[in-house]
Write a structure and sequence with these properties.
With about 180 residues, this protein is α+β, with helices and mostly antiparallel strands. The chain is built from 8 helices and 4 strands, in the order ααααααβαβββα.
């Protein structure tokens, strides 16, 4: 979950990107920034106040993946000591972009890889129920044994065999 600071940065970037018609470009820039800021050693270097800001900025801009505006955002985050907010900023930006475009991101967790037609069927059913376009990610986790878990927005539908077995175990324990 994004912090209040991450939400403010994301909203500011989103409003600017929307005004300029550059939402997709900013999405890519934020993904690049996230990749830079995800490394724990990089975060420690960027947080280190004994290293001058110009040198810390050179670390980020030397990677040659950011445009001028994304570099400015990186500078703001470094100067404000918010480099660890980048993941939340990127997540919140994607959430705002999805909301504006009428999309929903969903994660389906299954015990085995879904066939393409099953993926399409799940995405289609969810899209029909929500009345929105669904962008779906499939995660394979053999620990759920069977069935599936579906997460979208702040909702979780757990129809996994592992959860049902756990519920049955609890009922049996309570009955004895």
């Amino acid at each position: 979950m994004a912090t209040a600071a991450a939400k403010r940065y994301a909203r500011a970037v989103f409003e600017s990107a929307t005004g300029e018609g550059r939402v997709e470009e900013w999405s890519a820039q934020l993904a690049a920034l996230r990749q830079v800021f995800v490394n724990p050693e990089m975060i420690e270097l960027l947080r280190n106040p004994t290293i001058p800001i110009e040198q810390r900025m050179e670390l980020v801009t030397s990677l040659d993946v950011l445009d001028a505006e994304a570099s400015n955002l990186a500078r703001l985050l470094i100067e404000a000591g918010h480099v660890d907010e980048m993941g939340g900023i990127a997540d919140e930006f994607e959430h705002l972009a999805d909301e504006a475009a009428g999309r929903v991101r969903a994660t389906v967790t299954t015990a085995v890889e879904l066939e393409p037609e099953d993926r399409d069927r799940v995405a289609g059913e969810l899209s029909k129920r929500l009345g929105k376009e669904v962008s779906m990610e499939v995660v394979v986790d053999p620990r759920i044994l069977g069935g599936l878990k579906l997460q979208y927005g702040d909702r979780l539908v757990d129809a996994s065999v592992a959860t049902r077995l756990q519920q049955l175990r609890r009922r049996l324990a309570d009955a004895s």
